[in-house]
Amino acid sequence: MADLDGVPWPPAPIRTPRLLLRRPAASDRDGVIELLCSEAATRYLGGPQSRADLSLTLPQGPTGRPGVFTIEANRQFVGTVSFDRRDASRPGHVRASGLEIEVSYAVLPDELGNGYGAEALAGALGWVAQVMPREPVVLCTQTANRASMRVAEQAGFLEVARFEEFDAEQWFGVRQPEGATA
């Protein structure tokens, strides 16, 4: 998406000890559908979507939108991590103008609990620190999602607010750029 300030896209694949973060490919489509249809994977993300609807509406190939990474483990799709600008009309901001970089991630239900989300988040945040070194990154999750709150805190996010959105209490954190003061 153009509003990531002209960041060159796609970047070289990002390797972590167990994962590869790469540009989405057409071969990821079935995994993305599985992820978005999963009650376990989407419990705190608005709930599962209809497989039939996704089969009709999800593009056959990647859109090339900057900021979207496929998470791959052992050469298999296991999830996604993405960066977008947080909509200024939503609650939760650390800048008066809003539009902070917001990260989100999701992992297939069979892969939950093995640290892939935390590892992918760390790798992707390293990329942001290189290409947008002055940008704070925000993360929002339901307070009911204790695991995601722990992952965020381990990745260096500090809680700045809690608020109601989507009929649930939200935890909102920020990870300031290296050397910045909160």
Automatic annotation (TrEMBL):
MF annotations from Gene Ontology: acyltransferase activity, transferring groups other than amino-acyl groups
InterPro entries in the record: Acyl_CoA_acyltransferase, GNAT_dom, N-acetyltransferase
Domain N-acetyltransferase: 19-177
Keywords attached to this entry: Transferase
Pfam families: Acetyltransf_3
PANTHER family: GNAT FAMILY, PUTATIVE (AFU_ORTHOLOGUE AFUA_3G00765)-RELATED-RELATED (PTHR43792), N-ACETYLTRANSFERASE DOMAIN-CONTAINING PROTEIN (PTHR43792:SF1)
Protein name: RimJ/RimL family protein N-acetyltransferase
